[in-house]
Each structure stands twice: as C-alpha cells, then as structure tokens.
Amino acid sequence: MILIERATLQHVEGISDVCSRGYRATYGESHPKSYIERIIEEFYHPDRISSEITDGGDGWDGWHVALEDGTVLGAIGGGMTGAYRGEVFVLYLDPDRRGEGIGTLLLEALTRIQREKGATEQWVSVARGNQKGIPFYEARGFVFQHEQESYSNGEDEPFVSNRYCRGI
Ligand SMILES: CC(C)(COP(=O)(O)OP(=O)(O)OC[C@H]1O[C@@H](n2cnc3c(N)ncnc32)[C@H](O)[C@@H]1OP(=O)(O)O)[C@@H](O)C(=O)NCCC(=O)NCCS
C-alpha cells in the first residue's frame, strides 16, 4: 500500500535519493553531467532538505512523500507564489516506479493544501523537451503558457523551461 504523508526528518535520505536519481534519469541525456551533479548537490543535498522540512517558511508548503513500507518512492514540494497562485517546485519518483499513479497521488496532496490556502491556479516549470514530465502534466490538465530561460551558471547556454498552468 502506498501512503502519502507530510515528510519528517526520517524521510530526508529517501527524498534526497529519489530526487537525485530522478533528476539524473530525467536529464541525463539532455544536460551536461557537470550541470546535473551541481544541481543535485545544491538542491537535493540532505542538509538542505532537512532545513526545508524543519524551517518551512512563507511560500513553502513543505515536502510530501509517497511511502511503501516506510521507503520513499517519490517526493513533491511546492508553495504559494501569489494570493491565488500555487506552484509545484519539485516532483520526482524512483525512476523504476513511474506510471503507477504515484505522481498523481503526490500532486493531489499538494493541490489540496494549495486550494485550502486559496489557490485557484497552479503553475509548474518543466524543461523544454522533458518527455518524462510534460505528458504527465498535460494528462492532469496543465496547459502550456510560455517559455522562460531557466537556471544556469551563466557560462553555459541557458536552458529553456516551459511554464504550464491549470485551474484548481
Ligand atoms: C512526472 C512523474 C512525477 C509522473 O508520475 P507518475 O506516477 O509516473 O505518473 P502517473 O502514473 O500518476 O500518470 C498520470 C497520467 O500521466 C500520464 N503520463 C505520465 N507520464 C507519461 C509519459 N511519459 N507519457 C505519456 N503519458 C504519461 C499517464 O498516462 C497518466 O494518465 P491517465 O491518468 O490519464 O491515464 C514521474 O513520471 C517522474 O518522476 N518523471 C520524471 C521526473 C520529472 O520529469 N519530473 C517533473 C519535473 S518538473
């Protein structure tokens, strides 16, 4: 049985693991290895995830995890970016567990929270050409809005993100 729960410190290593492996599996063919490892070191380091669980902060709805027998299979994080606007900041699964509905369960948990906070729309950035992510968001009702240059170190060509939105 798969349970969706708000993450606690006991899930830090599992979140770091699924996000790191999920990120490599998603971008391994399209982005340079050095870039991928830099992003993982910055965003999915256990220390950073720990502080995001304990400190939270405005505009952050906390990490939620999908658990099977206590093992983290997937993780989502999001927050409010405006009075009526929620954002999915991050959503990754164990790459071997895609296509079982786990991503939908995680998205539903975040969406419930954002609705309660007053969100009527929900946004997400997905890298252009990410065929492991875009079909999922489109199946869940997100519609392409516009392109946006995404995070880079300023030396490389910037990567392009697609901004998607749905009503919630
Ligand atoms: C995106 C992701 C979280 C989706 O989770 P998931 O558990 O695999 O998705 P689900 O099983 O809940 O799928 C939900 C729907 O999306 C569709 N879908 C998901 N991935 C798809 C794909 N690659 N191609 C076509 N359809 C897809 C499913 O058919 C399903 O549609 P339905 O409910 O109408 O039948 C997961 O696949 C993942 O980790 N991908 C790689 C990481 C990534 O790209 N994350 C997003 C970065 S912003």
TrEMBL record:
Q: Name one GO molecular function term.
A: acyltransferase activity, transferring groups other than amino-acyl groups
* InterPro entries reported in the protein's UniProt record: Acyl_CoA_acyltransferase (IPR016181), GNAT_dom (IPR000182)
Q: Which residues form the N-acetyltransferase domain?
A: 2-166
Among CDD domains, the record links this protein to: NAT_SF
Origin species, per record, is: Rossellomorea marisflavi
Kindly give the SUPFAM superfamilies that the UniProt entry links to this protein. Answer: Acyl-CoA N-acyltransferases (Nat)
Query: What is the name attached to this protein's record?
Result: GNAT family N-acetyltransferase
Higher taxonomy: Bacteria, Bacillati, Bacillota, Bacilli, Bacillales
Alphabetized, the UniProt keywords read:
Transferase
